[in-house]
Amino acid sequence: MEESQLHIVDLKSKDMLRKIENGIVYGLPVLLQDVLEELDPALEPVLAKALIKVGNREVLRLGDKELDYNKDFKLYITTKLANPHYTPEVSTKTTIINFAVKQQGLEAQLLGIVVQKEQPTLERQKADLTLRVAAGKQKLVDLEDEILRLLSEAEGSLLENETLVDTLQQSKLTSDEVTRQLNEAEETEIKIDAKREEFRPAAIRSSIAYFVLDDMGRVDPMYQFSLDAYVDLFNQSMDKSRTSPKNITGTERCRQINVAHTLSVYQYTCRGLFERDKLLFALQLCLRIMTSENKVPKQEFDFLCYGGAGIERADQRPNPCPEWIDAGAWDNITALDSIPACMGIASAFEQGQRDWRAWFTSSEPEETPLPGDWENKVTEMQRICIIRALRLDRVLFCASRFVRLNLGPQFADPPPFDLRAIFQSSNHRTPLIFVLSPGVDPTAQVKSLANDLSTNVDICALGQGQAPVAMSLMNLGLRSGSWVFLANCHLMLSWMPELEKRIAEYCAMTEDMPHAPHCDFRLWLSASPSPKFPIAILQRGIKMTTEPPRGLRANMLKLYNLVGEEQFGRCQQRLKYQRLLFSLCWFHALLLERRKFKSLGFNVPYEFNESDYSICHDLVIVFLDEYPDETPSMNLNCPFGTCVFFSII
């Protein structure tokens, strides 16, 4: 809109005020981008339009300068915050416009991408028709304007004006021809739209998945995902899903895309989520998909979220089993009884107290059949509601079962952490970000991967005075193609905007530029969760959590992935090493899982981390190589049990 005259600045730019001053004086538009909820106080006179009349001049005082105000000046301000809260002083002085993408708009955009990929000829016809219709309508408007101009300029009798009569006749012929072309184009467009609609289910599913991702930012500030990266993932999913011949129906092709893309979104997202949030994401994804297919009634979903809150106990049916159903659980049952599909469940407790108590006291009520005919009456969603009403402690297990049955077993078991696979999905413009957990240090994993790939990695632990060192290492890596690992970014949040700007600079460079980044360059970052971490870096990068996964199987897979090819072939006693490695992984996974029992698991809580495992792994290799004739069991038990693990409990 403003074309080449627009000046772009941000709050960290050294010349921000100078460019705003030039815009005020010369009437140029200025874009202030990536602001947070607090603006620079120096902008207050600009926002308030605090103009002073000095003779015939309008003057704006900015800082210690008095500037002649040009009425053509415009100030645009943008933010990447999903739901910013500005003070009333800012809100009343500005016009706030919500430019966030909506589900219908994203659905239309993704539909165009799907059709462009699957039926490129159809999409080209759609684009050409849109241009032709727009040009035809504009031509009709131009003809009307020309006729009105001639009529306004005509003198004397209109019938004697030959130019006007000829123009009217020619306009009528042209108008009839354009109208005919428009009618044909609109009929063709209806046929094309009908063909495009075959692929709409894929666009609907993918738009739903994006907004589930977007909502995860409310759970943790580090869960930020960009639309551009999501569209790239969608294109990759379409390419991977093409397993059948091209002559399949649109419905079958949409099914393939939906299956592949939903799984890709789950796997892509899970590697950047903490363990406590992975089931939440899978359940939210499952419920949103089922809601779009009208498989989840709103009343049941509301009950799952809020339970029996707000029940009037004065009008409530008496509790028939007060010895094992408390007042809160009976409130839930009363609220559940008001849902049409579960009507009569309250009276069922009066009639079958023994059966319901046996179900209530079972160790796995989500797997135990419900009493009477309720097992055959309820859906899986209604089963979760019953579990939520009586056994709140089993809701997570029931939710996992619900996801497994409706989306598939692969959505209930998060994929194991594989750093090599994550690296292969990155490029030199994509930062790789470790979201740290207590007691976890990913430095050893990055070093191991660099050794396996014969790549140099420069490590800088951020802290006071380390900004020049970090920037120097980045510049060197961009030129030479080495890796740079900036650890503990949360300790230098004040420097993060400069890092964000440097990343944006080299990402904007094309390959033919003289200082373009080397294709082998990788930027690794690690940071604890912080709401002040730059959103732009999080959206541009690939996020990874480093906490141990849940479950013995998942923990063992992760521990095996920590052992590279070179380490696996280091030990000369191959068979003994493999058996002891399995025993070590099993033992370490058991210790990690035992932590969930808290004081019943260990007297003193301790975060067993990968360093403990790595030390024991190296000791296994050392002792096996030193004692090739026999397995040194006692020598291994002492450092493992006494020194490394149990000395700290």
Q: Which descriptors would you attach to this protein?
A:
649 residues; five-stranded parallel beta sheet; alpha/beta; three-stranded parallel beta sheet
Q: How would you describe what is shown here?
A:
- Helix content is 54%, strand content 8%.
- The protein has 27 helices and eleven strands.
- Helix 12 (327-337) runs antiparallel to helix 16 (380-390).
- The chain starts with 6 loop residues before the first strand and ends with a helix.
- The mean pLDDT is 84.
Q: What's the topology here?
A:
Layout: E1 7-10, H1 16-26, E2 29-33, H2 44-48, E3 51-54, E4 57-62, E5 65-68, E6 74-77, H3 88-93, H4 103-118, H5 120-153, H6 162-196, H7 200-215, H8 227-240, H9 250-270, H10 275-292, H11 298-306, H12 327-337, H13 345-351, H14 353-360, H15 374-377, H16 380-390, H17 395-406, H18 419-424, E7 432-435, H19 443-452, E8 457-461, H20 467-480, E9 483-487, H21 496-507, E10 522-527, H22 535-540, E11 542-545, H23 552-561, H24 565-568, H25 574-594, H26 610-626, H27 633-645
Parallel strand pairs: 1-2, 2-6, 7-10, 7-11, 8-9, 9-10
Antiparallel strand pairs: 3-4, 4-5
Helix pairs in contact: 4-5, 4-7, 5-6, 7-9, 7-10, 8-9, 10-17, 11-16, 12-16, 16-17, 23-25, 25-26, 26-27
